[in-house]
Design brief:
alpha/beta; Aspartate Aminotransferase, domain 1; Aspartate Aminotransferase, domain 2; 2 domains; seven-stranded mixed sheet; three-stranded antiparallel sheet; 12 strands; about 40% helix; about 15% strand; binds pyridoxal-5'-phosphate; PyrdxlP-dep_Trfase; EC 2.6.1.-; pyridoxal phosphate; PyrdxlP-dep_Trfase_major
Length: about 400
């Protein structure tokens, strides 16, 4: 019979994908299920970006490219880091991969020895711990609940660091919580890291442009230049430019790390897609105005969802600073009884109930390492959100 390698045997199938599959199956049975699960903007890739890809194809840019990014894309990324983040990276301090997900994968494969520890605040984007496990490292999960603003504190970080700690992974704004770290939030954490020179910092700035209420986005390598030579600043075009399917992510970091990551990439994908890289050049170098328009649209949806959730007795939703997710507490639902007599014992029971009773698919906090919460992705139309929220409210009202 078949037995998987031990390095993947501990990793389950993504719960988010499993919920999506179940919701799709219900849809095929004719049930009007609303899926608020996907972490994907509902906007289209901008036309000038598509045009750049098409032009690249016509020019014959359809072959293997340089291993970890074309010179043109690396230059566009260098300019982006300088322009938007005040960060100076040389071209050999920049890597491009098939999505930020592969950037993370390359980084962990290139640096972790078996048993090396990676500190990950929860709730976290599920791939963080799974990628660490595939690379045979040990995720060290630290609970950061709504009262803490879903942010890691300096005390928690200090306590979690051991001689085996290789990395700390921070994600601001966060998937799934939408919480973001301001300069004031980052400062004490960076001070701790300054005292522990063996610990490296991976920051995932994927949702940098999706921030609200004038939130001032900052990235640690710019905030604390003394940490820049052990920080990997990860970003990508998937969310800001609605380019999830193009699969381009990138990072800036110390040259030796970038070189080691290229070794991993050279024996997995060889290079990112040539046409997608040309598209990413256009995205990063072209007009940026539509990002603010889309952000305003996301903000209106955030406000709608947060207000509707907080109207429901038993649900408590913190106002997220960014991304397109709410991560609401359903602690008040635990112990309640469904109309068919079942007891809601966990956030998973609650989200299963919402799928059955309200025909709305959301993801339980357990999928992100923190309970009892549930995540809504509000990257969908206001009309659909309104319908989903009124169905959720009606289903919650039926719980005894
Ligand atoms: N980082 C975070 C926090 C994300 O939510 C995602 C996608 O969901 C990614 C990274 C990966 O993005 P991609 O691989 O599409 O660049």
């Amino acid at each position: 019979g078949f037995a998987p390698a031990s390095r993947i045997s501990a990793i389950g199938v993504s719960e988010i994908l499993a919920i999506g599959a179940r919701a799709q199956a219900m849809k095929r049975e004719g049930k009007p299920v609303i899926i608020l699960g996907a972490g994907e903007p509902d906007f289209d890739t901008p036309d000038h970006v598509k045009q750049a890809a098409s032009d690249a194809m016509q020019r014959g840019e359809t072959k293997y490219t340089a291993l970890d990014g074309t010179p043109a894309l690396k230059a566009a990324i260098r300019d982006k880091f300088q322009r938007e983040n005040g960060l100076s990276y040389e071209l050999d301090e920049i890597t491009v991969a098939t999505g930020a997900k592969q950037v993370l994968f390359n980084a962990m494969m290139a640096t972790l020895n078996p048993g090396d520890e990676v500190i990950i605040p929860t709730p976290y984007w599920t791939s963080y711990s799974d990628i660490v496990e595939i690379a045979e490292g040990r995720p060290v999960l630290i609970a950061c609940d709504a009262e803490a603003g879903f942010r890691l504190t300096a005390e928690q970080l200090e306590q979690a660091i051991t001689p085996k700690t290789r990395w700390v992974m921070l994600n601001s704004p966060s998937n799934p919580s939408g919480a973001a770290y301001s300069a004031e939030h980052y400062r004490p954490l960076l001070d701790v890291l300054l005292r522990h020179p063996h610990v490296w910092l991976l920051v995932d700035d994927m949702y940098e442009h999706i921030v609200y209420d004038g939130f001032d986005f900052v990235t640690p390598a710019a905030l604390e230049p003394r940490l820049k030579d052990r920080t990997l600043t990860v970003n990508g075009v998937s969310k800001a430019y609605a380019m999830t399917g193009w699969r381009i992510g990138y990072a800036g970091g110390p040259k030796a790390l970038i070189k080691a990551m290229a070794v991993v990439q050279s024996q997995s994908t060889s290079c990112p897609s040539s046409v997608s890289q040309a598209a990413a050049v256009a995205a990063l170098s072209g007009p940026q105005g539509f990002i603010a328009e889309r952000r305003d649209s996301f903000k209106a949806r955030r406000d709608l969802v947060v207000a509707a959730l907080n109207e429901i007795d038993g649900i408590d939703c913190r106002v997220p600073e960014g991304a397109f997710y709410t991560f609401a507490s359903c602690a008040g639902m635990i112990g309640r009884i469904t109309p068919s007599g079942e007891r809601i014992a966990s956030d998973r029971d609650f989200t299963n109930y919402l799928l059955r009773e309200a025909l709305v698919a959301v993801v339980p906090g357990s999928a992100f390492g923190l309970s009892p919460y549930f995540r809504i992705s509000y990257a969908t139309s206001q009309a659909e959100l309104q319908e989903a929220l009124s169905r959720i409210a009606a289903a919650c009202a039926k719980l005894g």
